[in-house]
Structure formats: structure tokens, C-alpha cells
Amino acid sequence: MGNCIARLTERKNLWPWLLLAPLAIYMAVFFLVPLIDVAIMSVTEPRPTLANYQRVLTGSLYLRVFLNTFITAATVTFACLLVGYPLAYLMANSKPRTATLILLLVTMSFWTSFLVRTYAWMVLLGNNGPIVWLLQTLGVQQPPQLLFTRFSSTLAMVHILAPYMVMNIYSVMRKIDPVLIRSAESLGAKGLALFRHVYLPLTAPGIANGSVLVFVICLGFYVTPVLLGSPREQMVAGLIGNQIDEFLAFGMGSAMAMVLLVVTLAILTIYHRRFGLDKLWG
Amino acid sequence: MSHLKLSGISKSYGQFNALEAVDLDIAKGEFVTFLGPSGSGKTTTLMIIAGFESATSGQVEIENKSLFGLAPYQRNIGIVFQNYGLFPHKTAAQNVYFPLQMRGVKKAEGLRKAEEMLELVGLKGFGHRHPKELSGGQQQRVALARALVFEPSLLLLDEPLGALDKNLREQMQIEIKRIQRALGVTTIFVTHDQSEAMSMSDRIVVFEKGRIQQVATPLELYHRPQTRFVASFIGESNLIDVKITDAAKREARNDAIGAIQYAPSNRPPTGSEATLMIRPENIKLSRNPVEGRHNVRMKVETIINYGDNALVVGKVGEQMMRVRVLGADVVIIKEGEECCISWLHDSVYLIAK
Ligand SMILES: Nc1ncnc2c1ncn2[C@@H]1O[C@H](COP(=O)(O)OP(=O)(O)O)[C@@H](O)[C@H]1O
Ligand SMILES: [Mg+2]
Question: Membrane-spanning regions, if any (chain B) (predicted)?
């Protein structure tokens, strides 16, 4: 460590590190220390054993929640892709003014707290909300239950996370050299074939980036599924919350959090090996 | 019988005319170069032929059939762009197979053809590499193979050698000519480098400010430029502004040099303004006047020695003159001295204003 600092000073490269120091200290105090605390609790609460992990990894309730979390995350990711890809395409291929307008609309939801957006969905999808009213007006006798279902939580999560997908894909689309498209056309490609053989593969890095980002955020999503989702189809974060504020089972909650963390890190590691994590952040 | 025919092609962007009334006939199998400074309309012409831009007026025909209304993918024209445009996610062989794939050729047969084409451009055994694993020159060859493999009716090359260093450029010039001859494909090659144009072309089309200045073989262009621009753009030249004093006797007059006779020409009448061109290598440098030649005295200002030859720059009165001499000859004079320069009447070429 001392050696390292000496070498850094020698190269006069110390400044950037000094500038990073406040952030590093902040992260250490408010993120790393609590995280270590959680890790310790997972093997000491209520007694120092690995029993918590054994229960988390074998109990059918917990496995079902984990499975449900993965399915939801995959569904949300896929839906974000379906919505985000055409939007990104539109943005990357329209006139500057139109592109700016779409960009504004997409990023606008970034500016609104996702808590606010979650409540907005509660109002929209509620039993007295405009959508149910519309269905009734259109003559649907018994409008389906929209709120507190897998549908409502998925819909809201897609709404909240789609901008991440759009921005990732958009940034890759923007960088595509137009000469590649012209080449493809001059070589006889058009329409769907051009899309399938040239455009889609060229945008694949954006799809991968966006998908991993959305998927990983989704795995740990708490507020939206808890407020909008079906209580019978919980996600891991919600379950952890339950353990802690309903059952005061700090050990179990911590063990689940650790499993979630390991799974997330595993996904990121595999992704990094394959594509390079740096690309995820643009 | 022309293969490609451009008639009256104009293109304007708003008020700006990028191309004005371009007419051109290209024969089957011909290698034609578009030469001109940057911004003179070469790429625009190419893009109109390829169908990426539409002309404001005029038409493009191949084998007497108008290309009007045909999209780029329907035109069967091979293009190599300056930065190659290779698909980064495909290997060299897959890149070359691509146009065949788009034409419904089966994979096994297509890949075999692609390999054959790669062999022709000198890349046997490189088929499995991705573009980023190839050098600039190799990428260039892949792009060439890809543009040729589907037997296009026309090959367009837009400054394809611009990004290569000098040695590689010369090597690729020879390669491109060899491949073009082997396949006999009608080719338009764009460059702003006059020596490249001179060494490669059957004919050169000189562009300036959206107009064709002259269409001619390299030698004709060098020896009989039709405009002052062509004379100054192709090779080195001494351009002398004169007034014709006697058209019958082929006599003209320049304020600094005095009376000059020029080679047979049927152009401007007595009294008109014109430009005379004398190539630096047609001027001889000596201490004393040489009999049988037109002699004038020049004050030497700069001598640039290239080893096997030297460029001597000096002034005859106010007129700047450049003389190209063989290495040994330059020994006879020094900078600042006066000497004699001389030429034959036949090497004075008249360009009408
Ligand atoms: N899309 C465009 N909009 C406006 N002007 C253009 C456009 N494309 C080309 N031009 C202009 O047309 C002229 C010819 O361009 P170009 O054909 O690319 O020249 P070259 O290839 O000879 O260098 C240039 O002055 C250029 O600025
Ligand atoms: Mg150009």
C-alpha cells in the first residue's frame, strides 16, 4: 500500500486519486461498513451458524420467491427491450428536433422520483381510476383487477426502467457508421434482411448493456413491487423487508440479501468476461 | 457504345450548385478516374450513380437503361468507401459472402466463391479473421473483394487509398489495376491525387467547382490541358499570361518575357488574351544562349535539390519561372546568379482564356 502510494506520487498521478478520496470515504462509511455488518449478521443472528443460508437455499418458499424474482426481472427486461428498441431507433434516426423531443420525453421520467411514478400508477390502475372507468364505459361488465397484480407491478417497473434500456441502445445506435448501412444497401441488402444481418448485430452491444442493467436493477427492486404487486407473488427485496420489519429476523434477511448480492455479482462477472463492464456505463 | 452514360446531371443543395450539367460516357471495361480538389463534386457524382443521392436534373443510364427510380440495392453497383465500410461483426469471408447471401446464393457455394475472391485479392487464408484483426491494406482488399464478388456492372471507388501510407498506396494502386484488368470490370476511381490518377487511369475526368473541366487520357491531359486550372492541377507548369500579337505567325507577347512563339494551335485570334504553358522539364538551363531555341535570361532565386534532379526557381523580369534540371546540370549555377533558360517553340502550349 505504502509502495503503491509512493509510486503514484512518483508519477505525479496522485491528484485524481485525491479528488476521488471524499467519494471513496463516503462509500466506505455508508456502504461498505453496513454491507460488512449485513454479512456478519447473516452468520451470527440469532446464533453463529450457517443455518440462515441453509434455510434460504433449501426452503421452498424462499426458492419460489427467488424464482419469481428472476421471472419478473426477465419479463421486465424483455418488455423494456420491446418498448425501448423502437424508441431508440426512432431517436437515432429522426431529425434533430424530433430526436430531442423524444429524448426529452424519455428522460423526463428520470426527473420524476420513481416513488411518485409508482403512486401515479396506483391512481391510474386503481378500482376507481380512469382505466377501469374507461373499460366500464366501453361496456366491460366486470373490469379485471389491475392493481396489486403481477401485471401492475411489471407495467410500472417497465415504465421506470425503460429509459435505461433506451439510453443504452440509443448510444450504440448513434455510433453506427452510416457508411456500413450504405455499404449493405449497395451490396443488395434491404428492409428486413438489412436489419437482421447488419443493423441488429451492430446494436447487439446496446441490447446486452441495457438488458443487464435493467435485469440487475430489477432483481433488487423494492418499492414498486411492494406497493403495486400481488402480495402472493413477492420479489426478494420485498421478502427481505418482511423478514426485517415484520419478523425481526435480521439473520434471515441478511442471508437473503447476501445471496441476492452474490447472484448479482455473478451475473455482472459473466457479463464482464464476455463484453467488458466498462461498456455498460457507456 | 457506352456502358455508363451521364447526361446533364445537376445537383443543388438549396442555393448551392454542387454539380452543374455533368455529361460523361464511359466504355465497358474502362478505368476512369475522377480527379479534382476536395469539394469539387466527385463524391456527389458517385452517390448519384449509386443511387444514394438523387440528381436535381439529368439522368444516369447503364447499357442504355435509365437507373431512374432504382434504389441502391437494385442497381448492382459495387462500391468501396474510403473507410472501407466492412461489417465489424462478420469475418472477412462472411463480409465477402454477404452480397451473395443477399442474392440468395447457398452458404456452401457462397463461401467458396468468397474464398476464391479473397484469393484473387491476395488474402488466401485470411477468411476467418475479423476486420479489426486485419491491417488497413488488408481491409481494403476485403472491401474490394466484397464489392466485386457479385459481378457488379460497375465498380465505384471513393478515395479508397486516402487512409493508407505512401508505400502501401503504391502497392494498392498496382493491385487494384491488376484486379480490375483480370475481371474487366468498368471502374470509376475517385482521387484528389494527380499522380495516382496519372498512373492508374485509362481516362481522367477533371472536376472543379461541380463542373467537368476536361476528360482525356493521362498523356493528353498532361500535354494538352484545355483550361488553366487543368494545366496547374496536373503536374508542374509555368503559366504565362500573354496577348496574341499575330495568330498567323503564332506569336504572343508577355510584358516580362517579350515576344514568344507557340506550338501550332487553331484557337484564339490576334489581339485576344491567352495563357501559354511550358512544362519545367522542357526548359533547358545554360550559361550562354543555345542556338535553335528561344533564349531568355533568368535570375536564379532558389535551387531545390532532389538528388537525381533539381528544381530551379527564378525570375525573368516579374515573371516567375520554374525549371527542372537533371542533377548534374545544376552544378553550373548558384542561387543569386544570372543564367540563360531556353525552350523549343513546340513545347510552348497555348491555352485559350
Ligand atoms: N448534403 C449536403 N448538403 C449540402 N452541401 C453538400 C452536401 N453534400 C455535399 N455538399 C457540398 O457539395 C460539394 C461537393 O461535395 P463532394 O461531392 O463531397 O466533393 P468531393 O467528393 O469532390 O470532395 C461540396 O462543396 C460539399 O460541401
Ligand atoms: Mg469526396
Answer: none
